[in-house]
Amino acid sequence: MTLIDVHLTPDYVARALREDVRAGLSATPKWLPPKWFYDARGSELFEEITRLPEYYPTRAEREILRARAGEIAEITKAHTLVELGSGSSEKTRLLLDGLRDHGTLTSFVPLDVSESALREASDAINADYPTIDVHGVVGDFTAHLDKLPGDPPRIVAFLGGTIGNLIPAERESFFQSIRDVLEPGEWLLLGADLVKDPATLVAAYDDSAGVTAEFNKNVLRVINRQLGADFDVDAFEHVAIWDADNEWIEMHLRATRAMHVLIPEIHLDVTFAAGEELSTEISAKFHRSGVEAELDKAGFTPAAWWTDGEARFSLSLWQA
Ligand code: AVJ
């Protein structure tokens, strides 16, 4: 059975985009939040990124999930798997297999901002896992955690290293809100990318085929389409730098010439100087000690810490 709860109406999404674009493009330096990359084309470009030779996180995390899904099932005996930012739910199948084969799983609750991605993923999972109830939630994982259905004990999976898109203060309230919605004894499964040599990190975000550059510029296309803006997308270049102090990758779009951009739907006229950079994403990288400190602060107890064979990526399990 498939059921979908919609907590994000198209109206809510349109308003959020307007507010983010107004705030970010009026600020100095300019910024835009990464969630607006993911329209249909952006989601496709991201899937393409996950197959790039330079982009190791997806493969590394899949390796860990494949090796550890059985253990995760045995430790947690979860009845419900909640996946935050589920996207295509492709890696989730490894977890579903482990939990189902262990015999405790009754429902899968994917939560995503994209209703189309959620419906597609829910239908596909429903077809392949007939004994599992799929109860999708269209929502924002920073705002709709209180709406999570499902039989306890639940395991909330937040995979792919998406936690790295949040700045430390946002991570703190995010972990706290997950802890607040879980009952004592329930679980959090976290995928986090690890600090490594800067050349490997930068290559993962500045691939030679230019797919990440297209993904980055896609946010301008989204604003052109949704808000009637006239960004000359080709007048921006993709920049990915390693910020060694903050231990995060920062993606920027750099204006190659001075320009004005009109955004009629929000009555905004934005000026770019030649060389001016617009920040579009941070992707923080972690040390085990840092992850442990943050989760401990939110009130979680560590249950397991795993990495891939090359120790590039971590998957860790926490109990509320
Ligand atoms: C989906 C957020 C995990 O930060 O690595 C990939 C997004 N950005 N290449 C990441 C992304 C540029 C990705 N996450």
TrEMBL record:
Q: Write down what this protein is called.
A: Histidine N-alpha-methyltransferase
Underlying gene: egtD
Look up the domain of life of the source: Bacteria
Q: In which pathway does it act?
A: Amino-acid biosynthesis; ergothioneine biosynthesis
Gene3D superfamilies per UniProt: Vaccinia Virus protein VP39
What's this protein's family per the entry? Belongs to the methyltransferase superfamily. EgtD family.
Where in the numbering of this chain does the Histidine-specific methyltransferase SAM-dependent domain appear?
Answer: 17-319
| Species, as recorded | Kribbella kalugense
Give a short account of what the protein does. Answer: Catalyzes the SAM-dependent triple methylation of the alpha-amino group of histidine to form hercynine, a step in the biosynthesis pathway of ergothioneine.
